[in-house]
Amino acid sequence: MSEYGRFEFTAEGAFSRADVFLNSIMPHVTRSALKKIFEGGGVTINGKPAKPSQSVKAGDVLEVNVPPAEEYSAKPEAIPLDIVYQDEDIAVINKPQGMTVHMGNGNKEGTLVNALLYNLDNLSGINGVIRPGIVHRIDKDTSGLLVVAKNDAAHISLSGQIAEKTCRRQYIALLEGNLKEDGGTVTTYIGRDPKDRLKMAVVPADKGKLAVTEFTVLKRYEGYTLCLFNLKTGRTHQIRVHAKYLGHPIVGDPVYGIKKQKFALNGQLLHAMELELTHPSTGKRMTFSAPLPDYFLSVLKKLKEL
């Protein structure tokens, strides 16, 4: 499938929402981009303009007009990057804590996108002017690995892997207190916190999206637990919210953590340490890893093992 043009789909089953149906069969088109297509009248059902919330019946014919990708608006900036791997299709970056992934309100400069535009020769254009090359993101104050698409074909492949949950992402975090279990799976729904729209929270099923996180205890300390987290879904702030849900928030988390922090930190001790994916062109399974940053290691050295 090319990245833009007019596409026609026939629904094989019923869906409660048209946008949900299209998200499931067009993973390379981001939710925000699809929303704009709906708003511009670019989606029809049986020849009539459709709304995102419109239901879809088996046999309905949907047409989607995906516009060409826009030119980049972000400016290249000479910001050093830790490029773990790079070829003609992808680049794997070890993002430092404190760097925002892409432009947004209040973030026009100093983002990963600004650095990518300077350091890489090509980036995919599907995500438009704000997020060229960005297939997935990690929080500003979370460090570690993410993969970047250098062309649209690679972007489509990687987006599909994330949607189909074949792209494996593992994180390591230091939690407050000691978990009773040695491991397990957290399955909840995550949505906007009804009391604070800037935060995410565990919410009822009709108010959020399914979020599944596997966790394994790696090491126990006096008052702390080092844990490995395996993302099965990719919701905003998922690990941070699930850690809080377990009753053991991430050390240093300014949003979901405890107010009184023992260590002088600039953000949560959460690191994307391993990334496994299938290469878009070769089909080869590839695994990348990034060591814990120095500030994370320095905290661990101060703790007493149990």
Q: Can you describe this structure in just a few lines?
A:
By secondary structure, the protein is an alpha+beta fold. Helix content is 17%, strand content 31%. The chain has helices spanning 18-25, 31-39, 112-119, 152-163, 238-245, 294-301; strands spanning 5-10, 43-45, 48-49, 61-66, 83-86, 90-95, 143-149, 168-176, 183-193, 196-202, 209-221, 224-231, 270-278, 285-289.
Which key terms come to mind for this protein?
Pseudouridine synthase, 10-stranded mixed β-sheet, 17% helix, 4-stranded antiparallel β-sheet, alpha+beta, single chain, globular, 3 domains, Structural Genomics Hypothetical 15.5 Kd Protein In mrcA-pckA Intergenic Region, Chain A, 306 residues
What topology emerges from the helices and strands here?
Elements: E1 5-10, H1 18-25, H2 31-39, E2 43-45, E3 48-49, E4 61-66, E5 83-86, E6 90-95, H3 112-119, E7 143-149, H4 152-163, E8 168-176, E9 183-193, E10 196-202, E11 209-221, E12 224-231, H5 238-245, E13 270-278, E14 285-289, H6 294-301
Parallel strand pairs: 7-13
Antiparallel strand pairs: 1-4, 2-3, 2-4, 5-6, 6-7, 8-12, 8-13, 9-10, 9-11, 11-12, 13-14
Can you characterise this structure?
- This protein is globular.
- By secondary structure, it is an alpha+beta fold.
- It has helices at residues 18-25, 31-39, 112-119, 152-163, 238-245, 294-301, and strands spanning 5-10, 43-45, 48-49, 61-66, 83-86, 90-95, 143-149, 168-176, 183-193, 196-202, 209-221, 224-231, 270-278, 285-289.
- 17% of the residues lie in helices and 31% in strands.
- The relative contact order is 0.13.
- The mean pLDDT is 89.
